[in-house]
Amino acid sequence: MSSDDAQILTTLKVLIIGESGVGKSSLLLRFTDNTFDEDMAATIGVDFKVKQLEINDNRVKLAIWDTAGQERFRTLTPGYYRGAQGAILVYDVCNRQSFRQLDRWISELDTFSTKTDPIKMLVGNKIDQKDSREITYDEGDRFARKHSMLFIEASARTCEGVQVAFKELVEKIIETPSLWDKTEASIRPTDNDHSDDAPAGYMEDNNLLLNITSEPTPTRSKLLGKKSVKRKHDTEDEQDSNVVDSNTKKKKQNERVKLDLCQGREMKTSNRSSLFSNNPTIPEIDEKHVETANEEIFGSASSLDKMPVHPHIIGCLKQKFNINRLTNVQEKSIPAILTGEDVIIKSQTGSGKTLAYVIPIIHRIQSIEPLVRRETGPIAIVLVPTKELVQQTYEVFQKVLTSFVRIVCSPLVGGSNRNHEKKRLRRGLNILISTPGRLTDHIENTQSLSFKNIQFLIFDEADKMLDMGFADAIKKIIETIVKHNDDNDKHFQRVLLSATPTSALTNFVDINLNKKSLHIDISEEFNDESAITVPKTLTQMFMIVPSKLRFVTLIAFLLKILQANKKNEAKILLFLATNELVRFHYDLLNTILNGEKDDDMDEQGDLQFGHLLDQPIKLLKLQGDMTHHERTSVFNEFGKLTQGILLCTNVAARGLDLPSVTWILQYHPTSPIDYIHRIGRTARLGSIGCSLIFLLPNEAEYVATLQDKYKMSLKNISPDDVLETLTFSCNKLKQHFETRTVIPRTAEQCASSLHHHFEEYVNGSGERTEEARQAYLSFIRYYASFAREWKYLFHVKNLHRGHVAKSFGLRDLPDESNNHNIKERTGTFASSKIKRKIKSKEDETIDPLDEPLPEPIKSETKSIFDRLPLSNNPKFRPRYRNFSHISEFGSGLEVSTKSHKKKDKVGEFLEKKRERNTSKRLFGRKNVK
């Protein structure tokens, strides 16, 4: 060691960290050599410089480590941080992304640093590029104050602030004696090195030898369906092995174990299956260029003032609805309805169809002589499929009727007090808005209800009402109105509205509407009659995700939406298949995103991390088994929110006008018709909206169906890109072991850590495990209930039961012996208790939930369009309950046939006989009747 070294107060280790391209190497070169290179190459692994400073008449030697900022080098970083007393965090003032990544670097420093609270200096580089600046000085200062850091702005090009940054950092370290020791240098050059610049690849740190390699660690190139590449451990130099004592070896071994865990490796003692192994291959789907049937939303600019209706209605539209011009469907439908003829309207969802019949109905009612009053009775009946749509339509009528208080409107829905509705009917109502079932109930039980003055009968979302099984109720309503009108020799006008006409609807129209009905089709200029119109402002996407990755990918995508939303105006509709699935995911998302836990939650079941969102987001749920009051309350609350997530079944798929919905997420797919109505909840009236549907690899042909038959254009989203979002929350996904805490770094590590916490939470309580089990069984029932025409896409035999169970956080496959409505009792495993051990190359025990996926069941015909029409098939018998009903109202059970009923009666008889025989033996024959 030279004589100069003997006079040095201490040697300090300082790191320069930050994203690639922010100018770390340029700052170091400017500080040590006072030079600047315009063509500075990116650092590979780590670079090293040494410089001496005079601090308060003391000489301090700085060993400055310049680390690589690229993602592929981050698995090496735990070795960089050991023994560092200070760190300079650099960001580019012209690159906001580099500023956002500072949280990750801070958490990495806090995790791997062996010094307590090392001094941090925040440096904003490239302030000479004033025209390209994106981050202000105040932003950097606030961030530094938040994290208790020193702060300065600098320019490696002009040398401004560079020397000051390093000097202030060293002075702060010297003022903190706990970070350094005069008697022992934290870092010193090797004995063979007597210069200021030690070799960049070989340094001695606290008697530990580090062999810093210039090559990056091999990592997994893709997250899905590929095996990881193991990195060879760095070998120790045999000549210097005598320097390392037994305690040092143990410490180094622990560091290596810690590094291995950070790289996503599993301990050999663990039998838990990997989230990224044995996944099915994701098929490549071509994004076909499809000529989508888009219709223009708005008509001419002057259409509102020229509309032939009462001036009070026009004034109300401008004041109450903030409408300055009519939509296309309104401009064409209002004159047609005013003629009094039957009208059939086909237009996309969100195009303003409700006002298209509200305006002419109110105009004609207010013009009736003598004037219509409460005592006149019902004049118009509006039938809609759901309670929520009843409430929404009622509110639209009420707004327009503010100028005509003598006309009374009222909703009639199931779940509300029937006696209160009877009182309103006795007092007199002019416009009735009801579901078919509730109105039929009043026809049968309310004597004061009279239809003698009916002039309008509106069928809104007519195809959905028929699909829900209201055909008999609608038939009875029409027959009652016809009977009353025949007595008075009056004709009533029928108006039918739908976005997706079906064959059942066509038959209904032929029977119940006038053959000379006026047809209004806004997309009639599009040649293909099967095409469904969608808004031009709607962006449709799909993502193919294996079963095991579905939940973590959902979380990552929600975080991606919320992080990209800077104005806190993200309103998301998350569609799930059944009521059980809504309840399960609602509780889970509330816990993971917001950190909300049940009051009776035990410590064992708590998530080890608090929550993923810094600011909580409001979560609501809407499902078919809720009371009318609960559903209305949720509907109104979500409508008032500026940001929130609504988890719902198909009960929210039709007709509902939820303001400012920006995203539609379909976690569980359904029929293409319901898909169309689901995406119609966004991009309404010209606003911008997006939709995403999650698909399994065996469901990939669903995309082709939407493209070929329904002329939908969808973009493919890669789950790899979505999972990268989890790296922004890596500090919150850390795992706690007995002696250490490990923070994941890569997207794969973060996803595995999140799923680990998810499983721990679900299995930490018997109640939550049972909820997950019920949700799993509900999903299997839903999947088995798809109509026969969609079996080639959604066949229950194509599901890997073990992978599906893992997506619910379950570690054992639930028993499906009592799960109804599953004809195909197939699966990889007959019982959850059977666990076969498979010996791999590394002799690891593999969980049976992670066995390879069996070959999918292929339909006899490649597509539904190759089949004969069902109406021409003599063996076809229509089903009265299909998959679209299960999520809202049904239990998912098959309708019992006669043979089933007969078996039930026989079983009941035998059970009663056994009970009687047992009673006779116990109490005697005379005492048993």
From TrEMBL:
Q: Which domain of life is it from?
A: Eukaryota
Catalysed reaction(s) here are: GTP + H2O = GDP + phosphate + H(+); ATP + H2O = ADP + phosphate + H(+)
User: Single Gene Ontology BP term?
Assistant: protein transport
**Which ranges are annotated Basic and acidic residues under compositional bias?**
905-918
Q: Which UniProt keywords apply?
A: ATP-binding, GTP-binding, Helicase, Hydrolase, Lipoprotein, Nucleotide-binding, Prenylation, Protein transport, RNA-binding, Transport
Helicase C-terminal domain location: 553-726
| Enzyme Commission code(s) on record | 3.6.4.13
- Domain Helicase ATP-binding: where? 334-519
Record's family? Answer: Belongs to the DEAD box helicase family.
Identification of the protein by name: ATP-dependent RNA helicase
Question: Which organism was this protein described from?
Answer: Adineta steineri
